[in-house]
Amino acid sequence: MRKGIIFVSASRCVACRRCAMACATAHSPFDDFFDLVRLGGAAAPRVVCIPVGAGVVPVECGQCRDAPCIAACPAGALARTDEDSPVLIRPGLCVGCRSCVVACPYGAIRVSAATGEVLKCDLCIELTEAGGTPACVEACPTRCLTFAAAESPEADADRPQKPLAAGEGETIRDGD
Amino acid sequence: MSDTIRFKADGRDVEGRRGASLLGVLLGAGFDIPHLCRHEAVGVYESCRLCLVEVRRHGRARVVASCSYPVLEGIEVFTAGEKILRLRRTILELHLAHSPKSEPLRRYAAGLGVEETRFRIADPGNACILCGRCERVCTEVIGAHAIGFSGRGAGKALTTPCEAESAECIGCGACAVVCPTGCIRVVDNERDMVREIPFIRARHDLEPCRLCGRPVSTKAHVEHLRRKGLDEQSITTCDACKKLGHARLVAVQGHM
Q1: pTM (2 decimals)?
Q2: Which of residues 10-69 of A touch B (CB under 8 A)?
Q3: For all residues of chain B together, what is the average pLDDT?
Q4: Which DSSP category does B255 fall into?
């Protein structure tokens, strides 16, 4: 199994949103994003492309070391198998209180309006367990998204050790 | 003593862990057994009775609620025999007579072939089947103890202490999410920044996002998370602002 987290190099992003499409497809019963849309599946990407200035930034779950979502969950529905594993959700245990959504410092967890399901990056656990890379990283044509071990030196410096807060003191609105 | 229990279900060999519930093991093995009151996050309540199966043990057969029955070595289970299907249909008719207003319940029953009930409808406005999912989640998972049962028999009802607005409710809305009949609904009014959950007489002020003013959750839920020691800025900022704040940070830094 390959272990790591997803790193984002914002300057390489060309706003193609292939990461979000690949993510939605990987977490659906379909093999192809166009099938998903055509056959009426609910597109539920875990990575969301947020417009900033002229470009976009893919917001990915950082799989925080001291993950606030795990601390917030009263049902034990969010857990990791070891300290390098992604934070995974066990849907059967979720009671839908949204504490994880409120606690996440990045807004990287959301609840599907259609199904009530908690949507959170699982680093495509089935793919990485088989030695592959997450679907969004695989789909990224510019290597804006990379999958690397959290222990690699250049990686660890950037890894969120504690929650980073949204822009201090400024008012932020959608599409701003 | 082995920790793996082997038994037969509808002629198939099935294995389960000692101490596991029969329903959990059967669902895990791919059997389609109807159930409404079971939720993995909380204890067993065996109130909906829909998960009943026939168990043969030591040459004797009995009908049991599989959610509260343990897996036992060598038992024979029948999940969809004529007798079980007949009993299940009767139970669904009783649910429909008790809670005729629940649309999800009617759809669920129709999916199992029950469209109408032969029993007398006591209260046409009732949608609650008294499955206790909301009460167990509120007590065992959230730890709020905001709701509970009052009365017994025909007078049993899900309510708040003294049928008044509960001081313990944090307005998280988990009760509405786990409710299988849709009788608990969360109504958010963004204009007045109020959340109401009418079925449990809850009314909560919403916490405005510190950046955009849109609701994050109820004030009581945010306070509950604050007491858990979670980061103050995270719990007072809405989803969209947290995403945007993080995206801007990544754009400025050039990487994450």
Answers
A1: 0.86
A2: 10-11, 48, 50, 52-53, 55-57, 59-60, 62, 68
A3: 94
A4: B
